[in-house]
Design goal:
- The chain is mostly beta strands.
- It has one domain: Neurotransmitter-gated ion-channel ligand-binding domain (Acetylcholine Binding Protein, Chain: A, Distorted Sandwich), CATH 2.70.170.
- About 10% of the residues lie in helices and about 35% in strands.
- It is built from two helices and eight strands.
- The strands form two sheets. Strands 1, 2, 3, 5, 6 and 7 form a six-stranded antiparallel β-sheet that branches.
- Strand 6 and strand 7 form a beta hairpin.
- The radius of gyration is 20 Å and the shape is elongated.
- The N terminus is likely disordered.
- Belongs to the ligand-gated ion channel (TC 1.A.9) family.
- It is a multi-pass membrane protein.
- GO terms for molecular function: extracellular ligand-gated monoatomic ion channel activity; transmembrane signaling receptor activity.
- Keywords: Ion channel, Ion transport, Membrane, Receptor, Transport.
Length: about 160
């Protein structure tokens, strides 16, 4: 029965539809069980403005988060695949925030600078390009010969 083979895109669309049936993005993975571990990686592209007057600094970075959501595990395909940004809106995401952040934004030109990859075991890799402006309490008693340590403090509400 020779019919046309199903395209990989069609396979992925069907797989996603099945995985998202009954999926509740408001519940974290393993809700009611162990906490969800979220791994974070930041690749700093550039440090731009350091202001002694405002006691702030600014950086452009790739902010990556990875976690396992067992509800999204699959065996239908042999490899990981990239998800569209639209699918991201249907998934649970960590509520990571920057404690000492003043103002941050995701780069949206020309499209949102976000990348989402789903692996067979349900691991999600979520990357976005951010510009972060953060507070840095500075000790200026030896200015301009002083040394500053400007932390980036991350947290989560859950």
């Amino acid at each position: 029965m020779g019919g046309r083979p199903i395209s990989p895109t069609k396979n992925i669309s069907c797989l996603l539809d099945n995985l998202l049936k009954g999926y509740d993005q408001n519940l974290r993975p393993s809700f009611g069980g162990e906490p969800t571990t979220v791994e974070i990686d930041i690749e700093v592209r550039s440090m731009s403005r350091v202001s002694e007057m405002d006691m702030t600094y600014s950086m452009d970075c790739y902010f990556r988060q990875s976690w396992v959501d067992e509800r999204l595990a699959f065996s239908d395909l042999d490899e990981a695949f990239t998800l569209s940004v639209a699918v991201l809106e249907k998934l649970w995401k960590p509520d990571t925030f920057i404690y000492n952040g003043k103002q941050s934004y995701v780069h949206l030109i020309t499209t949102p600078n976000k990348f989402i990859r789903l692996y067979q075991n349900g691991r999600i890799l979520y990357s976005s390009r951010l510009t972060i402006n953060a507070n840095c309490p500075m000790d200026l008693h030896d200015f301009p010969m002083d040394t500053q340590h400007c932390p980036l403090k991350l947290g989560s509400c859950e």
